Amino acid sequence: MIDCFGLNDRVILKKKHACGANEWRIIRTGCDIKIKCLKCSRIVMLDRQEFIKSAKKIIVEEQKEE
């Protein structure tokens, strides 16, 4: 089960988007998860359980220290 994700992490979903891409970026977390397609920039909001079920792999972004 995939449940360790945060803002700006890249996610590969099991199903492809209509544009043909399956790579997304997380732009909002909480009760619902908002993700943005990295190819066509479409934004989709999913229920947390639905997101966890459809996520295949999460690529964690390195946090920049300022």
Folded structure, characterized:
This protein is mostly beta strands and 66 residues long. It has one domain (10-59). The chain is built from one helix and five strands; from the N terminus they run E-E-E-E-H-E. It has one helix at residues 48-54; strands at residues 10-13, 23-28, 32-37, 43-47, 55-59. A five-stranded antiparallel sheet has the order 4-3-2-1-5, covered by helices on one side. The protein is globular.
Mean model confidence by pLDDT: 88
Number of domains: 1
* Quaternary structure type: single chain
Give me the Rg, rounded: 11 Å
> How do the helices and strands follow one another from N- to C-terminus?
EEEEHE
Low-confidence stretches: none
Q: Count all strands and give the number.
A: 5
Residue share in helices?
A: 10-25%
Strand residue content:
35-45%
Q: In one word, what is the shape?
A: globular
Strand order across the largest sheet:
4-3-2-1-5
Write the layout of secondary structure elements.
Elements lengths: L9 E4 L9 E6 L3 E6 L5 E5 H7 E5 L7
Antiparallel strand pairs: 1-2, 1-5, 2-3, 3-4
What does this entry show, briefly?
With 66 residues, the protein is mostly beta strands. It contains one helix and five strands; from the N terminus they run E-E-E-E-H-E. It has a five-stranded antiparallel sheet with strand order 4-3-2-1-5, covered by helices on one side.
